[in-house]
Structures are given as C-alpha cells and as structure tokens.
From TrEMBL:
Residue stretches in coiled coil: none
Annotated heme binding sites: C269
Organism of provenance: Gymnopilus junonius (Spectacular rustgill mushroom)
Name listed for the protein in its UniProt record: Cytochrome P450
Protein's UniProt keywords contain Acetylation: no
KW DNA damage (keyword) present: no
Amino acid sequence: MKIVCRTTNRVFVGLPLCRDPDFQELNEQFTIDVFIGAQIINLFPEFLKPRVGPVLTKVPGRIKRAVHHIRPLVEEQLKQRERHGKDWPDKPNDLISWLFDEAKGPHLHKVEEIAIRVLSVNVAAIHTTTNALTHTLFNLAAYPEYVAPLREEVESVIEAEGWTKLSMQKMRKLESFIMESQRSAVGAQAMNRKILQNFTFSNGITLPAGTEVAIASYETHLDDKNYDGAHEFQGFRFSNMPHEGEGLKHQFVSMAPNYYTFGMGRHACPGRFFAVNELKAMLVYILLNYEVKFPNDGPRPDNFWFSGLLTASRTAEVMFKKRM
C-alpha cells in the first residue's frame, strides 16, 4: 500500500509531499475511517446523521490534517494564477492544478475543498490499486514461467519506445497478465444499483422501485461459457486473443459483458486509464529490477472474502532479490 500511495500521489500532489510519512499514513487510513464512519452513522435515524457524523467519526480530524499538508500547494496555485493567469512556466501537471482548472467558481479554490477532493480521489485510487497490484505480484511469484516472456516484452518495448504512454499500450502480454490476475480475483458482485421506478425486463419480469440489483461478477468471470478453463490461471489468455479476432475488445480499459473489473457503460470507472498505466509502470519496474518468489518456493497464498470482496492475503510475504 505504501508503494501505491507514493506512486499515486506523485501524480496527485507531486514531490516532496507524496513522500511525506504523515501524508502517506493519512491517505492510507482515510478510506478505513470513511467506511467505519459510514457504518456508525447508519446506526442513527436520518435526522441525526448530519449531527453525529462530525462527532463520532475520525473524518473531520483527517480533513484538518489534509488541510495542513495541502495549504502550501493551494496558496502557491493562487499566487501563480493571480500573477500569470491560468498558465505559467513550470506549472505543475498534478491533481491540484486540474482541480483549479476545472473549478466552477472561486468557492472551490478554498483549501478545505481541495483537501477533501484530494482525499476522496485517494480513496478511489489507493486501496483498489493496492489489491490489484498484490494479486498480480502473487501470481508473478506463483507462476515463474511467465517472468522470462514478460521481461523480454518489457525490455523490447522500452528499448524501441522508451517510457511513454504508447509503450505501455504495446505491452500486451503484461496487460494480459494483469487482466487475468483481476479476472480471477473479482468480488462477488459489481455495478450495484437501486431501481428508482418500477422496471420491466424484456422477458416480462418486473422489479419494483427500491429493489437493489447487481451483476454476479465472480460467477461471470469464472464461467466456462465465457472463458475456456475459467478456473485455471492463464497469464496470456487475453494477449492470445488477437489471433482469434477478439484482441481489441479485450484490452484492460475496454468494456465487455463478461469482464466487470471496471464496471460497464457510462458509469464505468473513469480512473481506469490512469490505474492501468500505473499498474503497468510499477510491474515493469519490478520485472526489470527484481526477482520475486514466495519463501521456500511455497504456493500462492489463499485469498479471503470480506463483505463480498475477494481480497489478497494480508499476511503473506513475497521475497525480492535485486537483479544483477
């Protein structure tokens, strides 16, 4: 999680804040505080929820800590915009600048508003990407036969293209390996929705307003009708699909009715393009610089279920050895 937090915030807030230990700990814990706080607030009737939230949860205190860290960045943005307008030499290309650029009014330039948004984006980015990276790293250690072809692809692409967005798109084997790691580690359900008005399907089944529905993502991903040998890990399953004429629709960021890692339709995860490139960049660095294995060449540790989510083991260890 610390690796993902630092990497993510290198883009969100830049140096040196992304490496600040207190800022890291704040973002790592904020998601936990939010979900625990939500459970506490839901114990109370509606009219009391706005009043008990600030008193019984840790969220207000976390926001104050975020304001302390973000304030210098916001003040620098305001100073530069007053002096230069919207653009200036060496303008940071980070989340703070993007929030200022897209703000629909000066009230959204307040430090607390910016701090809350930075925390909120971190909620969406850190824990999901950490789980994805951990699943992929475990599979890299559990299936060492994939390391050589992955490393060969990475070295070849970087030698030809360098470290660019285009080069990331050309790493099809690496993308397939990540996709397969996510296919077999998806949660029980996805795209949870509440029906706001009575809805009748084409087969005549009617669901009344208030019904909660979801996609059975885990069963879909592990259905042999959708994937040959669905219960087997096949690291290059998706990179082999171009030979079958299906490669384009099986890119990681693409939408498919049998792959729900990022959802579907207009409400699909908007941060998936960033997340995929971030995952690739971290794994490329690991492949180029380290050998990975489990202690005593042990098997892949079992995942565990928590509230409908399939989570990688929190206690397993992976050994890293610097490549010579």
